[in-house]
């Protein structure tokens, strides 16, 4: 006995088994009948897949088709030949001189006369003054003064006796000392208030006196500041 089924294909109960006593579909209200699931109208594909033909399947009398590229291959062209080098443009030869070379010797012969300039003089020696306390002072300039520095003006003499015992008897610019190339000796000129003595002899102010090795130089009175003179060549 066939079961009741809903024949409405759009209903959720389509082709579903319903109770035998049901007359209509409880979902869509369609009268029930013996519905059968629809079959596809498309016949099944019974054809076999196409056979792949290999190159070896062709008979010996038939050659397989050949595939050639339609593009033309690029062939590199050789460079064009270089032009032949042009000959160098040498300047035309110079015309010979119209004046023959002179055979007259030079009118300015080399002079064999020795130079008239005298040789440079020897450097000045060093004047050394050894103080009685053992302190040494050196003078090697061409011109200068012996004295003690000034705290007010800031002037410092070339031979500064600042700091020696009894420096108060020494003037700021006590005496001038300079090198005399003609006498080849150092010269001293007194310029002080307390006087200058050389080997115990008083030096007149403004008068030059020559200093020699072993001289005893005294600045001021009472032998408070004394030096032994040395000239080092």
TrEMBL record:
Domain of life where this protein originates: Bacteria
List where Pro residues composition bias occurs: 76-103
Please name the SUPFAM superfamilies in this protein's record.
SMAD/FHA domain
Compositionally skewed regions (Low complexity) per UniProt: 38-54, 64-75, 104-115
Entries under InterPro entries matching the protein: FHA_dom (IPR000253), SMAD_FHA_dom_sf (IPR008984)
Where in this protein does the record put region Disordered? 38-128
Keywords assigned = Plasmid
Q: Where in the numbering of this chain does the FHA domain appear?
A: 144-203
Q: What is the name of the protein in this document?
A: FHA domain-containing protein
């Amino acid at each position: 006995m066939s079961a009741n089924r809903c024949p409405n294909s759009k209903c959720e109960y389509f082709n579903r088994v319903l109770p035998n006593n049901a007359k209509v579909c409880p979902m869509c209200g369609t009268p029930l009948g013996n519905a059968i699931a629809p079959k596809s109208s498309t016949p099944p594909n019974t054809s076999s897949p196409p056979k792949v033909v290999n190159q070896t399947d062709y008979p010996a009398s038939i050659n397989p088709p050949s595939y050639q590229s339609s593009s033309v291959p690029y062939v590199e062209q050789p460079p064009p030949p270089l032009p032949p080098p042009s000959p160098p443009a040498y300047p035309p030869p110079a015309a010979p001189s119209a004046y023959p070379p002179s055979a007259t010797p030079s009118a300015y012969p080399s002079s064999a006369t020795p130079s008239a300039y005298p040789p440079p003089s020897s450097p000045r020696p060093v004047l050394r003054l050894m103080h009685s306390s053992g302190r040494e002072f050196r003078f090697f300039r061409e011109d200068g003064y012996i004295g003690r520095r000034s705290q007010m003006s800031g002037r410092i003499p070339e031979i500064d006796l600042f700091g020696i015992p009894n420096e108060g008897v020494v003037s700021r610019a006590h005496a001038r000392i300079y090198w005399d190339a003609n006498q080849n000796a150092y010269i001293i000129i007194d310029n002080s208030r307390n006087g200058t003595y050389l080997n115990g002899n008083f030096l007149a102010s403004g008068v030059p006196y020559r200093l020699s090795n072993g001289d005893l130089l005294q600045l001021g009175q009472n032998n408070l500041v004394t030096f032994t003179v040395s000239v080092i060549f």
